[in-house]
Write a structure and sequence with these properties.
Largest sheet: 4 strands, antiparallel
Shape: globular
Oligomer: single chain
Helix content: 25-40%
CATH topology of the largest domain: Rossmann fold
Number of helices: 5
Distance between the termini: 18 Å
Strand content: 15-25%
Structural class: alpha+beta
CATH architecture of the largest domain: 3-Layer(aba) Sandwich
Strand order of the largest sheet: 2-1-3-4
């Protein structure tokens, strides 16, 4: 099987505190992996390094065949391939659910409004909230907001989620 994520001797410090200590991990395409641990153990930092949102000091990270550069020069290229749902969801409060889900596909992927809406509605149906498309994030429960964030990430059709 092809490798989707490869971490080799990954190290990350915040000041003098080492958050990630020589992490080695290989994830095959199609494999499902859960990163778990207590609060403050480095789970989010690890995922942010994989998604090129957080620089690391040493080691290597390869995602979908692309080496993540420590200085973040190729962050956009990596982030187009990796879908991520943030803990706080980061939905735009002034945009409807549908607009939250179509903004990136239009701007980043260059899809037409109709193409993006069709794709967004498909994923809103997959997470079972298509009837919420015209509502705003503040009108939704926390669980519904989480499903919008998942649908929004999936509309970009990432290679890694």
């Amino acid at each position: 099987m092809e490798t989707c994520v490869n971490l080799n001797d990954l190290n990350k410090w915040f000041g003098s505190f080492q958050v990630l200590d020589s992490i080695n991990l290989s994830i095959s395409t199609g494999e499902k992996v859960v990163i778990c641990g207590p609060s403050g153990s480095g789970k989010s930092t690890l995922i942010r390094c994989v998604n090129a949102l957080e620089p690391f000091q040493s080691g290597s990270v390869t995602v979908c065949g692309i080496s993540v550069e420590k200085n973040g020069r190729n962050a956009t290229e990596i982030q187009r391939r990796v879908g991520m749902v943030f803990q706080q969801f980061n939905l735009f409060p002034h945009l409807s659910v549908l607009k939250n889900c179509t903004l990136a596909p239009c701007r980043v992927l260059g899809l037409s409004g109709d193409e993006a809406e069709s794709k967004a509605m498909h994923y809103l149906e997959r997470v079972r909230i298509p009837e919420q498309a015209s509502k705003y994030p503040a009108d939704l429960s926390g669980g519904q907001q989480q499903r919008v964030a998942i649908a929004r990430a999936l509309t970009m059709e990432p290679e890694l989620m």
